[in-house]
Structure of Acetate kinase:
Amino acid sequence: MKVLVINSGSSSLKYQLYDMTDESVLAKGLVERIGMDSSILTHKPADKEEVVEVSEILEHNTAIRKVIDKLTDKTHGVLASVDEINAVGHRVVHGGEFFNESALVDKEAKKNIRALIDLAPLHNPAAVMGIEASEVNMPGVPQVVVFDTAFHQTMPERSYLYAIPRVLYSKYKVRRYGFHGTSHYYVSLAAAEFLGKPIEDIKIITAHIGNGGSLTAIQGGVSVDTSMGMTPLEGLMMGTRSGDLDPAIVPYVMNKEELTVGEMNSMLNKHSGLLAISGISSDMRDITDGWEKGEPNAKLAFEMYEYRLRKYIGSYAAAMNGVDVLVFTAGVGENSAIVRKAVCDNLSYLGIEIDEELNKIRSGDARRISTPNSKVEVLVVPTNEELVIARDTYRIVEESQA
Ligand SMILES: Nc1ncnc2c1ncn2[C@@H]1O[C@H](COP(=O)(O)OP(=O)(O)O)[C@@H](O)[C@H]1O
Ligand SMILES: CC(=O)OP(=O)(O)O
Ligand SMILES: [Mg+2]
């Protein structure tokens, strides 16, 4: 079975085409900086040269059309025709209380994913566009949706409830759901495997820091707390998202600036975070470049980002009464040695010590960056949300056809 996995992030679209007979990747790629000037499409067929194309890609449905063109392209393609794709698996950020596990796409599923757009305004619209563009381009091909929220369903009430009237939970399901679950799940298992320890025996903090970012405390192999909440806005400072703030700011600013709910949501989701503080960009690469060039607001943005991340790591060590393993993953976590060093240098009280040379190594493999003396194993583990999605898609489609 050939499975095309589509991971629509807020500013990127990643894809991988799997042959599930041996889980080999026939081609993969990504479209970066969607909606920004000069989007970059990188397509890498397994046995051919990588191609990079720069163009303006304003939204996810254009991105998917371009991906399908590349997969079936005479020169760079790996498929004679789009008909060779047997199933499509989509990453969907918010499953709310509609979905506790991955599901086949049907009318009802699409309706429910749409109904959750309110709660994930940066993400669920991208997923819906991805599903619909796939239906148009691959009619009749079964599609599966895999949710970011599923892994965090194990959180105890004390973690997932907010200290607000209980009726808001029973009436509106206002609670913490958590996100990036597929990634936290994958990297925590990969970390345990790398260390050769049973996952049940270690306390792990996974830092998934990309354009969006979240931290998860994993104990006994399950998520016991995570930094994102009812929506992917809570928690860490992110590319364009504020992360935690005093909730009283929301009515105060709405009142002063005469903002609508939509405008306020948009301010906190799309015009805050690194972008707002630096005044330069939401991209960590631009922030560190700006800092090197002596731009004071880039330096401040970096410091706030690192400070908040470090405080969360400390709080999760407290939540689990200790931490054995700290894992960095996603765009910033896998690539930014500067962020990792700044955070870890400030966690020496936990016995964390990293090796600066190991930290600088660039590699696509899971690796240790802590010293032998470090009391906590610090790892960089490239995430692979796509593989988890491909496996779920394969299993669910097989089951549905049995
Ligand atoms: N070499 C790098 N150095 C620092 N940050 C990087 C680097 N490469 C990517 N990033 C960061 O990773 C982010 C994208 O991460 P990713 O996990 O792909 O995000 P998302 O899935 O939310 O779109 C970019 O916004 C950028 O800040
Ligand atoms: C949930 C979320 O924030 O996703 P991303 O990191 O892809 O923006
Ligand atoms: Mg992501």
About this structure: Residues 9-10, 93, 123, 148, 179-180, 210-212, 232 surround acetylphosphate (ligand 2) (CB under 6 Å). The longest helix spans residues 296-319. The chain has two domains: 2-147, 197-380.
